[in-house]
Amino acid sequence: MDRLRNQSVGLMVALAFAGILMTIATGCNVLATAMYVIQGANNPAEFDGLKGKRVAVICRPVTSLHYRDSSVSRDLAKQVSLLLQKHVNKISLIDQREVFEWADENNWEDYVDIGKALGADMVVGLDLEEFSLYQGQTLYQGKANLKIVVCEVAKGKEPVFEQNIPQAIYPPNSAIPAGEKPEAQFRRKFVEYLGRQIAQHFYDHDATNDFANDSTALN
């Protein structure tokens, strides 16, 4: 009887200890989940040197793209500017109309020229090498190749930050029939997506923001 009683007590102690461990583990999981919900899957900024600066954003397309879609560079620079204004602390963005007008009316070779002329501390330059909306003739799937170049005007032409975006694809996993929405609407969605891929290099952001891009492309 004593042996059975001791075995029962031992089993009860073991079960109680296991319960405590499960409670602790569950509590840790709940805490981790709560922290994830509160903080998000944050990715830190790759370059945070735009804070508190006067910044010009300009997009320079390759010559063939400029003639094929002359407005894409302006639309993309405007979208990036809007996101930087929203998310970068104490940044001062030079009005895009001022940037466009100076670039159109003057001969320039590098981004520092624009920065000096407009009184910018920093210039975010976008070398746009490819921009297309279609996969074939009847399906939408945006594709873009570009390079981000950031110059600090006081330091000269050598970039203080560079990043290649070899190919941004929207939606990333499948094309959508062109008949489901007007081209202008899909183009706007793609420019918004591409602008986000660029601007997120300069501020902390939630890495899960673009997980649902295939479904949002249909909206």
Explained architecture:
It is a single chain. The protein has 219 residues and is of the alpha/beta class. Helices cover 45% and strands 25% of the residues. The chain has helices at residues 2-39, 63-68, 72-87, 96-105, 111-118, 183-199, 213-216, and strands at residues 42-43, 54-61, 92-93, 122-135, 139-152, 161-170, 176-177, 205-206. The strands form two sheets. Strands 2, 3, 4, 5, 6 and 7 form a six-stranded mixed β-sheet that branches. A two-stranded antiparallel sheet has the order 1-8. Strand 4 and strand 5 form a beta hairpin. The longest helix has 38 residues, at 2-39. It is globular. The N and C termini lie far apart (72 Å).
Secondary structure layout:
Layout: H1 2-39, E1 42-43, E2 54-61, H2 63-68, H3 72-87, E3 92-93, H4 96-105, H5 111-118, E4 122-135, E5 139-152, E6 161-170, E7 176-177, H6 183-199, E8 205-206, H7 213-216
Parallel strand pairs: 2-3, 2-4
Antiparallel strand pairs: 1-8, 4-5, 5-6, 5-7
Helix pairs in contact: 3-6
Summarize this, please?
With 219 residues, this protein is of the alpha/beta class.
CATH architecture assignment name of the largest domain:
3-Layer(aba) Sandwich
Count of the domains: 2
Gross morphology is globular
Structural class: alpha/beta
* Number of H/I helices: 7
Number of strands: 8
Mean pLDDT: 82
> Topology as H/E string?
HEEHHEHHEEEEHEH
CATH third-tier fold name of the largest domain: Rossmann fold
Poorly predicted residue ranges: 1-39
Q: What Rg is obtained from the alpha carbons, in whole angstroms?
A: 26 Å
Helix content: 40-55%
Note the beta-strand portion. 15-25%
Query: Main beta sheet: strand number and arrangement?
Result: 6 strands, mixed
Tell me the distance between the termini: 72 Å
What is the highest CATH level, the class of the largest domain?
Alpha Beta
